[in-house]
Amino acid sequence: MLEKKILAFDVKVTKEAQKLADELGVKIFVGDIIHEVIKAYMKNLKEEKEELAAADKEAVFPCIVKVGTPLCILQREDFVVIGRIETIKNRNRCVDMANKGNEVSIEIVGMNPSRHLKDEDELVSHISRRSIDATGMTHRWTGAGRRVED
């Protein structure tokens, strides 16, 4: 999660200031040598970018199907996870994702071989709490339902 940051070079941070920063979600980098403060800041920035990249892989968006999306079907008023999308093909070409309205074929991995899909089975993306949190970490939504990068 991206945090607000303060680089504090050659200054003392009082306990009250640190407490307020903690309450407001502000990370303070303190040091007597400017290069060490910047190095700590850059390390933290790199870790945040890696965390966001990992979270983006977990995010599932409505009307977008991408490789790795977990799928489930509704069966007797309960959702049953059937597997994850391994490949997506559009006109016999492998693609990374498909949008609403695209006609594509998908290969599902992790599916129980004895489970047969029927024409009336509706495939839906399995949106877990982890996926919802990942989506919130990496994107904010406009009132029109469009994704806006932070």
Give an account of the 3D structure:
Helix 2 (34-58) crosses helix 3 (129-138). This protein has helices at residues 15-24, 34-58, 129-138; strands at 4-9, 26-31, 64-66, 70-75, 78-90, 93-95, 97-99, 105-109, 123-125, 139-141, 147-149. The longest helix has 25 residues, at 34-58. With 150 residues, it is α+β, with helices and mostly antiparallel strands. It has 3 helices and 11 strands.
Which regions contain 5 or more consecutive residues with pLDDT less than 50? 141-150
State the end-to-end CA separation: 11 Å
Q: Oligomeric state of the chains?
A: single chain
Percent of residues in helices? 25-40%
Q: Rough shape?
A: elongated
Compute the average pLDDT. 77
Helix/strand structural class: alpha+beta
Total E-strand runs: 11
**What Rg do the Cα atoms give?**
22 Å
Number of distinct helices: 3
Q: Please provide the ordered H/E string of secondary-structure elements.
A: EHEHEEEEEEEHEE
Largest sheet: 5 strands, antiparallel
Report the β-strand fraction as a percent range: 35-45%
What keywords describe this structure?
single chain, 150 residues, alpha+beta, five-stranded antiparallel sheet, two-stranded parallel ribbon, 3 helices, 11 strands, elongated
Brief rundown of the structure:
This protein has 150 residues and is of the alpha+beta class.
